[in-house]
Amino acid sequence: MGPSANNAVCPENMKVGVFKNNHAHSCGRYGLRIFHNMIPRKYPCKPETIDWAEDKKADPYWKNPAITATFDGLVSWKNRRNGAIAERVGDVRFTNFKVADNLLAGIEFSLTAHYGDDTTRIDGALIIGKTSNTDDALNGASPRGVITPRTENMLVKNVKFYNFNFNKAAALGSCSHCFHGAATDSGARTVTFEGLTFDEATVPRRIRYQTPFKAIYYDRDGSLTGLGPKSWATPYFAHHMQKGCTGSKNEAKFDGVICDSTNQVRRLAFHVPNPGHRFRGMGFKILKYDDSQKYKDLAATAE
Questions:
Q1: Which of 17, 213, 259, 286 lies most in the core, judged by the most C-beta atoms within 10 Å?
Q2: How are beta strands 144-147 and 105-112 bridged, if at all?
Q3: Distance CA 210, CA 175 (A)
Q4: What is the pLDDT of residues 164-211, one digit of tens each?
Q5: H/E element, 139
Q6: What is the pTM assigned to this prediction?
Q7: How far is 267 from 284, CA to CA, in rounded Å?
Q8: Spatial separation of the C-alpha atoms in residues 123 and 195, rounded to whole Å
């Protein structure tokens, strides 16, 4: 746009410079906002490309690899929405943040580009729900420490949470900008966690899910669930209550079900069903079925 526009320059996809040790407070909405897109890559004006060839599995993004953009050392407090938020981003990393007294969330990621599980991330953060220097607006709010995206490929690691023991505040929440079932993602996106620390005295709710209540939280080291490495947290549904899983519909600490490593929680979705009108608006339900029973049924039919 404008007289100096140039199709050979694509600012949203270019390498980022230095962002280090900045402060933001008392902003009308966000202390830091990345909006709309930031997907730095080697060839900014060429599209994101994934090569699924067998010999390229180690680096399927080799045709146009991502460039890491690091935002380091932000201190952000008393903002009317978030300490920091990123909209659609690629290999963007928030490192060593300190956020406190923010009304909606300490840190929020909305959308991630597809550059693998260990690219887009929060790595190292101190997140405080409410300090002693609070105000009336926060006293009436129920913020989350981190709001996770409505896409895959997000890592949250080495984060410490304090002082979420008021109203319905919680350390973690899903999913970003999912405020209404008719205008949101279908959910069940996987977010990966490791190295989390919760102050037990002041963080009674580790998770509080949001519409559409279908998140999948994968815990690499057990620091979220307390059930050891490769464990899971997800909202309550009856079919989630498998062996190795505990929880209930009204469970407060995890707002649902936690499962040990003997389970795997996966997203299932059908695209362009035919005939589509027969499935429109229907919920997808899973029925437990024992394979051994199937063969008994077949044998009985054969007789």
A1: 259
A2: parallel
A3: 6
A4: 999 999 999 999 999 887 778 888 999 999 999 999 999 999 999 999
A5: helix 136-139
A6: 0.90
A7: 11
A8: 9
